[in-house]
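Troubleshooting: if your tokenizer reports a length mismatch, compare your output against this known-good record of 260 residues.
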Amino acid sequence: MKEKFIITAIERVIMVMETDYLGDNISFSRDLKSNEIIFHFSGLATVYFNDTVLETKPNSIRFLPRGKASKYDVQLHERGECIDVFFQTDSPISSEALVIAASQNEKLGMLFKKLFAAWVGKGDGYYFESLSILYKIFAELQNDNYVPRSHYARIKPAIDRIRDRFLSEELSISELATACGIKESYFLRLFKEKFGISPKKYIIQLKINHACELLRLQRYSVTQIAEMCGFSDVYFFSRQFKQYMGITPTEFIKKYRSQS
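Known-good structure output:
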């Protein structure tokens, strides 16, 4: 995420309650007309955005960049509440979606609530007050030094390797850390700061995400898809699929057919 940018517009600020969700598996428009920064006060979800898999949990912050996305799906594991800010900037902040791990979560949560209150209150000068609070949020994030760009650059070789080979190879932590030229413990810390989960869970989620795409094609059996996604045991694949998606592969196919 860039360190310097100008917020050219706040378009809307909304609060999403537990009762506002229409389902536990949601596919959003793949054309984001605004940047979004979201504070999750409660709930658990897995977000599939392009090739990135993100885990959101209570007191986490999710950023989504403006632009076209090849994929934007959310799987809710536990419904919760969040505040979502839609805004524009003079230049792209980041080309990637990310979950921000910040230490000042309570303070940031209060700022999001203050921003929402100012926006919906529509009092005198509310827009400039809202703009000021949003700048303050980004200032807090930069002061907290959540994931410096130099840190992301350190683990990018591993991320590239995972995305290129997650279907064809078993990638070890040792191999990924070596690709980055850093110690395993340091690699694990930086990876979790970036994605909020371990490399092992990240790889499994990429496989499950790919399995969903294959299941939607309705050309292959569950056993074939398990093998194509690198699972030697179809029963283990089915258990992992249900853990991450909330339903079995067979149930996923039936649900997809009923919606198509």
